[in-house]
Amino acid sequence: MNLTYPALLQQGILINNQWQTGNNTFPVYNPATGQQITEVTDAGTAEAEQAIEAATTAFSNWSSRPAKERADLLKKWYQLVIQHTDDLAILLTTEQGKPLTEAKGEVQYGASFIEWFAEECRRTYGQVIPAPVADRRFFTIKQPIGVVAAITPWNFPIAMITRKIAPALAAGCTVVLKPAEDTPLCALALAQLAVEAGLPAGVLNVITTQQAAKVGKVLTTHPNVHKISFTGSTEVGRILMQQASSTLKKLSLELGGNAPAIVFDDADLEQAVKGTMASKYRNAGQTCVCANRVLVQRSIYPAFLKAYQAAVTALKPGNGTEQGVTIGPLINQEAIDKIQTLQKDAVEHGAEIVCGGNIHEAGPLFYQPTILTHCTTDMRLSQEEIFGPVSAIYLFDTVEEAIALANNTAYGLAAYFFSRDVQRVWHVAEQLQYGIIGMNEGIISFAEAPFGGIKQSGYGKEGSFYGIEDYLITKYLCLGGVS
Question: How far from each other are the two terminal CA atoms of the chain, in whole angstroms?
Fold first, then answer.
């Protein structure tokens, strides 16, 4: 891996703007090649407590700074991320696997959150409330909640970090970040650029670790941490929620999904195929908002399947740094095993493999882009995330049947549908039990828009002006004795 700016490749943990290394380390691998990239520090509970202490000490100064000062520092950070887009993309592709074009897109997408919240931090307005009595005045002010612990996943190792850290810093909070152990290098590179941008010591601390459960418990139970922001599985989210209840921490949880993509008979076929492909196969199907279930109205099914299969078979798996590659590897063997288990269960219950269905010749962590038809609700993949490049196609006849199928899940993160009937669009959008709805579009996440789910997909919003609210408290002030 050749970086034009080698300082982006860090192996230590960052506490108080100082890079620290320890005797304990763990390897980071390239999922496309299986080769070790480097080793990073394996932090434990002691290092987690040091990071929290640093963030606690830094909070008073950082939170009292004028919003414009915080905004200016965030803008410098944003500019450095954009300046080093190519290196960050190479780093991302090397440790996570997605094609280089996608990686560059993620770097820019991640940077957009820094830019957006640099602007939003100057708009954390309070209110003047008309009082019911003549001698009093009512006000509200917004203040940062305190030290934030952010726990981020491996599938978007830049964007999921900036989507949490940027609003926290903008609000005046200080942060302890624990990135996923599969993809720690992007987090460390972002931290290096934050330090270069002038972020004061202790404001952002990053601890890499293989001891996720132990370190996570420190973060969720420490009395000096006032907010947890987590993206990951619903199972782990429940554990963190239970642990955080001991100190009643504020939580933002972006958890599992089971997104439907509904193709109605009046849909623009080309648009429906393009949108479903973008949702399903981006990042090799490893996104929480992937179209997990493709619901197709019976009358349009033959035409849709023909066009969709042509698009899926045109995908080119391979090492993300190679020219023309459009789909990368899965993150690890566990991901491969899960896909094979769910696919086997589906076939045993009557599903048919139209294309794909096996390990790809590109390597042991590559899976062929796959389509399964004749899928039904008694298959495990109707209720569990596939999290890979496998499309499960279901048939329906009526609009109400499609809505019922789509809502038949414990999850409620994202949903998609394709229709040109305006009345149908509004009816379906209002009936779907999801926090995010893509209508005639498969790419729905932007810094300007709120991102978050309902039901067992969690709660809280990231992005948009709602995103900074999760890092603020509203304080009510009552002034008496006014004549």
Answer: 71
Q: Which of 47, 106, 120, 254 is catalytic?
A: 254
Averages of pLDDT over runs of 10 residues in the chain (483 residues) are 95 98 95 97 98 98 98 98 98 98 98 98 96 97 98 98 98 98 98 98 98 97 98 97 96 97 98 98 96 97 98 97 96 97 98 97 97 97 96 98 98 98 97 98 96 97 96 98 93
List Cβ<8 Å contacts ≥24 apart for 19-24. Answer: 20/47, 22/47
What is d(CA 108, CA 89) in angstroms, rounded to the nearest whole number?
A: 10
Is 423 exposed, middle or buried (CB count within 10 Å of its CB: 0-12, 13-18, 19+)? exposed
CATH number of the domain located at residue range(s) 6-255+457-477 in this protein = 3.40.605.10
Helix 85-96 vs helix 100-120: crossing angle, to nearest 10: 120
Residue 252, SS3 per DSSP = strand
Domain coordinates in residue numbering, the chain: 6-255+457-477, 259-446
Which of these, 289, 290, 265, 306, lies nearest to 418 by C-alpha position? 265
Catalytic residue among 173, 186, 288, 375: 288
pTM recorded for the entire structure: 0.96
CB 431 within 8 A of CB 440: no
Q: Is 254 in the active site?
A: yes
Does 106 qualify as catalytic in the annotation? no
What is 259-446's CATH topology? Aldehyde Dehydrogenase; Chain A, domain 2 (3.40.309)
The residue type found at 335 is A
C-alpha radius of gyration, the chain, whole number: 23
Phi, psi (rounded to 5 degrees) for 391: -95, 125
Instruction: Return all residues near 156 (Cβ < 8 A) that are at least 6 apart.
Output: 106, 110, 283, 287
The answer to whether 135 touches 108, Cβ cutoff 8 Å, is no
**176 contacts 53 by C-beta, under 8 angstroms:** no
Do residues 109 and 159 touch, judged by C-beta distance below 8 A? yes
